[in-house]
Amino acid sequence: MSDIKPFLAKFMIYFGFFMVILYVGLGSFILYPTTLPDIPRNIKFVFGFFFIAYGIFRLVRSLMTLKNNRNNQTQ
User: Fold this and answer.
1) Taking the alpha carbons of 61, 54, 9, 7 in that order, is the dihedral positive or negative?
2) Cβ(62)–Cβ(13) under 8 Å?
3) So where are the chain's domains?
4) Cβ proximity of 20 and 57 under 8 Å
5) How does pLDDT run across 21-33, given as a tens digit for each residue?
6) pTM summary value
7) What stretches of 1-75 show up as alpha helix (H) in DSSP?
């Protein structure tokens, strides 16, 4: 049972980075001018900016978690 915890922790770190790429990619896709032509530009900007900002927020949180995990392992 103790072997699963480190594996799960690593999986969650990689999953967090995957979600960062997904959110930033989705935000960029929404902001691209020729995609979703039926949606008004201001709505596309709000949602695109939100997804990119949330992706950056998740990146910072993931990096802080990774740094804290490494500091705890060395102590």
Assistant:
1) negative
2) yes
3) 4-74
4) no
5) 999 999 999 999 8
6) 0.84
7) 4-31, 41-74
